[in-house]
Amino acid sequence: MPTTTMHPDRLFPSDPKTRELARELYLEVADAPICSPHGHVSAKLLADDAPFASPTELLLTGDHYVTRVLHGAGVPLARVQAPVGGSPVDPREAWRVLAAHWHLFRATSVQYWLEYQLGEVFGVEARLSADTADRIYDEVAERLTEEAFRPRALFTRFGVDVLATTDDPAADLADHRALAADPGFAGRVLPTFRADRIMDPSAAIWRSALDGLASSADIPCDTYEGLLAALRARRAYFRSLGGTATDTGVPDAWALPLDPHEADRIHAAGLRGTATPSEGTAYRRDILYRLLEMSAEDGMVMQLHPGVHRNHHMPTLERHGADTGHDLPLPTAFTEPLRRALNDFGTGTALRLVLFTVDETAFSRELAPLAGFYPSVYVGAPWWFLDTPDAMERYRRAVTDSAGFAKTSGFIDDTRAFCSIPARHDMARRADATYLASLVATHRLTDADAVDIAHDLVERVPYDTFRIPRP
Question: Which element (helix H / strand E) includes 214?
Fold first, then answer.
């Protein structure tokens, strides 16, 4: 019977000599600690350290990378994910749905991640299929009752040194405080400041987000200046708990300051519930500029990922909520939209701006050239729709000529699926080893330089880019 045991030379080149080079480079860093400076695993998972409820909860439910493949093939989301306010799905039945459709995942990154988790993390030898679904479910469920498979034990086993979370400005960060104060937990879990919800006063959620920010900062936000003061206060709070970075996801990268009187006028309209979509756009672009300005003041690394149409399918949003697989890429520009901000802050030493895209044409056209000139700009790793071995290779070939290796972010796993963290980093390390081996094979790098770069990409670049102290 086929097994999930993964080939030791997976993702390496077919040419024997280059494959040997790639293998040697990978082995240099295969067991290096993981620095994950951008992710969506909750600190509460580690603070509570409760057993995972089921294989389905851990590996399937809520992982939009998995569920969108099923949905795209015509499987209703309700078969694997409960509707908002609805009854939970039967975990075993949902697992059977995944197993019956396993053929849909062939050659995808999702297959790689799930097979790594089943084989490397849980020791499952049988390959997932309709026939083996119940047996594998029971095997993983049994593992989840063991102490060795609780969140903290897995965190240690995965070799995670740093795990960054994503947090609302109003979050109390109690779980981060608890982890930092716990002498039995040696890892670093850092909060990341994400203020998207307060950027558009024409959005339905804006007023409640503003009220939460005002309450947490203890600063009235009934004026534009009050909002800015509250954001600065909360950023300081995040830094006090080890946070080094912010994260911003917006429809476009335009960062244009408004006259303060105009900003205050739109702010007041938002409080009345009368701000128009065009006013909301102008205000959002102003806030993006102000967040860049704040990062130039306080040194928090700013991650910016524009160009995603959120919640493209309204019926799915209404039935299942956000982050359920129907956020879709848009063509994205950076050079002109960021020109004002980069002219104001881009050559200073405080601002650190990591630019991400799901429009891979932007890598060579805009992001690498921007990073090649502006000291503040770094090129974010391929992520989301691009975190595949082929896209990782295209990324390196697109950005290296202009930006080199040092002006990149290091690998970003961007995951909510806790057990996929080592799988994703393993994929990235193998992909980078393959690219470096190709440069050695064509005599563009020496063996020694390739080894140095392989170590830098996992042991120096992510720490330095995100201003995280190295271990």
Answer: helix 206-217
Contacts of 85 (CB under 8 A, 6+ apart): none
The angle at the Cα of 241, spanning 465 to 230, to the nearest 5 degrees, equals: 95
Confidence (pLDDT) at 1: 44
Evaluate whether 33 touches 187 at the Cβ level (below 8 Å): no
**52-149 has which fold?**
uronate isomerase, domain 2, chain A (1.10.2020)
Would you say 95 and 133 are in contact if contact means Cβ atoms under 8 Å apart? yes
What confidence tens digit (pLDDT) does each residue in 274-323 have? 999 999 999 999 999 999 999 999 999 999 999 999 989 999 888 888 88
The segment(s) of the chain belonging to CATH 3.20.20.140 are: 33-50+154-240+258-288
Whether 369 has a pLDDT exceeding 90, the answer reads: yes
Is residue 335 exposed (0-12), middle (13-18) or buried (19+ Cβ within 10 Å)?
A: middle
Task: State CA 189 to chain mean position distance.
Answer: 15
- Could you tell me the sign of the dihedral formed by the alpha carbons of 135, 137, 142, 147, in that order? positive
pTM: predicted TM-score of the whole model, two decimal places: 0.96
**Contact yes or no for 110/346 (Cβ under 8 A):** no
Look at the domain 33-50+154-240+258-288 and name its fold. TIM Barrel (3.20.20)
Q: In the 8-state DSSP scheme, what is residue 159?
A: T
Alpha helices in 241-276 (DSSP H): 260-272
Q: Tell which residue, 272, 194, 204, 289, has the closest CA to residue 238.
A: 194
Residue 357 in tokens: 């895209």
* Conformational region of residue 321, where left means phi above 0, alpha means psi within -120 to 50, and beta covers everything else: left
Instruction: State whether residue 270 is helix, strand or coil.
Output: helix
Could you tell me how many residues make up the chain?
471
Rg of the chain's alpha carbons, rounded to an integer?
23
Nearest to 354, CA basis, from 401, 308, 409: 409
- Torsion angle in degrees (nearest 10) through CA of 249, 253, 255, 261: -60
Residues forming a β-bridge with 329: 308
CA angle 160, 165, 170 (to 5 degrees): 155
Q: Amino acid identity, residue 136?
A: I
SS3 category, 145: coil
The 10s digit of each residue's pLDDT in 63-114 is 889 999 999 999 999 999 888 888 889 999 999 999 999 999 999 999 999 9
What backbone phi and psi angles, to 5 degrees, belong to 236? -65, -40
E-assigned strand segments in 356-407: 377-379
